[in-house]
Design brief:
single chain; globular; about 260 residues; alpha/beta; about 40% helix
Length: about 260
């Protein structure tokens, strides 16, 4: 199951940081993998979603922000992504009724309390995981055209995908499969949480990545693909986050086996 993508958007730094911290605490408490981005205004998050194609599962919006309100921004995002959940943060409970114009999951009144954030996160997690489970079941297999036949690829076996002229090649744990389609077209049918561009001609399956170097992504057993500067920082951050989570899980497991409180 991929991590839950969360955005916090508030023009006041104190509330923005406080909410992000509370959401992070919930993730640690519930052992839920979260990726949290923060934004100072609605224009920033709209640009990231519209121009870069970023997808969020849950967005916390301050209702009252200059230029573009949280509710207006949510309306714009909902036109592009009907799966996104919204929670509004407001200083006045009277604004809460407007929040449900865009089918908000809930709202929080400032000053925020952790128990309110925890309640909303639990509710959102149930809905998000239900959707992701359904999508995972549907998206595990991909039909491609190869040598005039339709071939079904088990995406869990894909290590990486390579552009080769006007075709692309799926490198699997048990072989290769040529697809008579462009890399960009194939990418549109993949889960962006699991499959990441490393280079304009390569897509990596994130769970198989063993190491991210400055010029290559390594999968082990001498298998590696190039990485360009455009994608390097994001890949490094995600890979390091994965390493830290694994380390923490191992420490916790070791502590439990030794009867220690970790």
């Amino acid at each position: 199951m991929r991590s839950i993508q969360i955005a916090v958007c508030d023009d006041e730094e104190f509330y923005r940081d406080e909410l992000a911290k509370m959401v992070s605490v919930y993730g640690n408490e519930s052992e839920t993998e979260l990726e949290i981005d923060v934004y100072e205004n609605a224009a920033q998050i709209l640009e990231v979603i519209k121009q870069r194609g970023k997808i969020y599962d849950l967005i916390f919006f301050d209702v009252e922000m200059p230029e573009i309100t949280g509710i207006d921004a949510a309306r714009e995002i909902y036109k592009m992504d009907t799966k996104a959940l919204f929670c509004f943060v407001t200083s006045h409970e009277g604004y809460a009724l407007r929040a449900f114009e865009v089918e908000a999951i809930d709202y929080i009144v400032k000053p925020m309390q952790y128990l309110d954030v925890k309640r909303i996160m639990k509710k959102a997690k149930i809905q998000i995981y239900y959707r992701l489970d359904s999508e995972e079941a549907r998206n595990r297999y991909l039909d491609i055209v190869s040598a005039r036949d339709t071939v079904t690829i088990d995406l869990t076996k894909v290590v990486y995908i390579e552009k080769r002229r006007n075709q692309c090649v799926f490198h699997l744990t048990d072989g290769e499969q040529v697809c008579y389609d462009s890399l960009g077209s194939v990418y549109k049918r993949l889960d962006p949480g699991d499959f990441l561009y490393t280079h304009q001609g390569y897509i990596a399956h994130f769970p198989y990545i063993k190491e991210v170097r400055n010029n290559a992504v390594c999968f082990g057993s001498g298998m590696e693909i190039p990485v360009s500067r455009k994608y390097l920082q994001k890949l490094k951050e995600r890979h390091m986050d994965k390493i830290l989570r694994i380390r923490d899980e191992r420490k916790k497991t070791l502590g439990q086996s030794c009867g220690l409180n970790v």
